[in-house]
């Protein structure tokens, strides 16, 4: 049975989508079968991997709220070699539509992913930058949460807010939800701020913080414009080396499986 990991932080611009794409690709390079679920109405993961190819294409919205078969909405990519459940702007109104439901609205995503879970080693959910019903659905469906933290002021404040949400979801919907790890992103060793934030996060969260951090890297920003992960775009750059290291550390934490 595949493990489901939500990549979540209610703050925008912290590297959730970059991490979702490149961790998924890194796992695929290690011969793992991966499904990337784009659960953000901005659809950046879908756009960054050219998963939306035609108007009217079924998306995660179609699956959740229009009873479209999840197997038929999944897009199979070769570079990187992963499957993607794409998103679109139609997901923006899903919170309001879910809110009208009387029961089970927090488990819509979980019920759908259970239908395909056995087909994958890992299912990675790219969460929206909010703490609404979409995020609750992702946390209810997930086995664990990977939290990207940008090396900037107020980083710990954002993590604290998310941890409160995680505890609430544990109490109400998913008692087995765990912290997969905390990932420092946009780290620049040349700046005092990055070093201080890194030290603060590691001091507060200890072994939950990955040893590997993700540097500021132009290639990481360029890769989505080519529809590629960093490994296909420039495997020699520092960004690719960082995500390769993260992938290895992630697998080691999961028993090498």
TrEMBL record:
<dbReference type="Pfam" id="PF13614">
    <property type="entry name" value="AAA_31"/>
</dbReference>
<comment type="similarity">
    <text>Belongs to the ParA family.</text>
</comment>
<dbReference type="InterPro" id="IPR025669">
    <property type="entry name" value="AAA_dom"/>
</dbReference>
<feature type="domain" description="AAA">
    <location>
        <begin position="3"/>
        <end position="179"/>
    </location>
</feature>
<dbReference type="InterPro" id="IPR027417">
    <property type="entry name" value="P-loop_NTPase"/>
</dbReference>
<protein>
    <recommendedName>
        <fullName>Sporulation initiation inhibitor protein Soj</fullName>
    </recommendedName>
</protein>
<comment type="subunit">
    <text>Dimerizes in the presence of ATP but not ADP; ATP-binding is required for double-stranded (ds)DNA-binding. Interacts with DnaA.</text>
</comment>
<dbReference type="InterPro" id="IPR050678">
    <property type="entry name" value="DNA_Partitioning_ATPase"/>
</dbReference>
